[in-house]
Amino acid sequence: MPTVIDALNNRSSKRAYLPKPVPKEIQEKILDAAAMTPSGANMQPWKVLAVSNTQLLKKVGDTVISKMDEGITNDQFIQYYPVKWVNPYKKRRIVTGSGLYKLMEVDRKDNDTRIEMWKDNFRWFGAQTVFFVFTDKANIDGAEGVLLDCGAYMQSIMLAAQEFGVESCPQGSTTEFGRVIAEVLEMPENLSLLYSVVLGYEDKEAKINGYQPSRVSLEETVTFID
Ligand SMILES: Cc1cc2nc3c(=O)[nH]c(=O)nc-3n(C[C@H](O)[C@H](O)[C@H](O)COP(=O)(O)O)c2cc1C
């Protein structure tokens, strides 16, 4: 029986899936477990749209891709990535990105292929189930705490999914087009899209799924005081 540590170590973002939705009973089990994520004042500030309708997913993805093709870089509720990248994070981002492109034999200067690879986010990497996670705009008006809760909720979804052999990829790419996506999904005005999580059955033949970026040592991120 896998332990929590096993689940943490074994999870990695998968970017190629078989065309097979996650059965609703499994989605419910994952979401039931994730609902146990702690949140400040037990607000449970997440609102999830669990979409396995391929037509709707295609409509959402195509709309975002056509915005990208028009030269629009974002249309978002929240800014996810730093506005100004500083080290060591900048360097880690470069190392992680170049590791992926190296594995996929994509040249550093081949911008077109890189953009196509990014667009794969909006083809949901071939998966047929995506959880779109929203929160009430009032929760993030002048406060950020709820983003911590919803981030923890994201990890709960991804760890719980493993129990059912379901792989995942968290998506900040959808955060960047949150307003566009909320509109296509016809969400109520009071909700902001925070992120999505792609869920499904990995294509084990796909080279890209072998990518598991390493982590820096504890010395770089932790200070112990005894
Ligand atoms: C909040 C968040 C947003 C992310 N957004 C994307 C994304 O849009 N597309 C993507 O391919 N990966 C995305 N990732 C995956 C990260 O690149 C990945 O977690 C990181 O490189 C570590 O790799 P691992 O998840 O395989 O351990 C995101 C991860 C997080 C936590």
Describe the structure.
The chain has 226 residues and is α+β, with helices and mostly antiparallel strands. The chain has eight helices and four strands, in the order ααβαααβαβαβα. A four-stranded antiparallel beta sheet has the order 1-2-4-3, sandwiched between helices. Helix 2 crosses helix 6. The radius of gyration is 18 Å and the shape is globular. The chain starts with a helix and ends in a 5-residue tail after the last helix. The model has no long low-confidence stretch (mean pLDDT 97). Flavin mononucleotide binds at residues 12-13, 15, 96, 121, 169-173, 195, 212-213.
Structural Rg: 18 Å
Bound small molecules, by name, code or SMILES, are: flavin mononucleotide
CATH topology assignment = NADH Oxidase
CATH H-tier superfamily = NADH Oxidase
Summed up, the domain count is: 1
Largest sheet: 4 strands, antiparallel
Class by helix and strand content? alpha+beta
Proportion in helices: 25-40%
CATH class: Alpha Beta
Mean pLDDT: 97
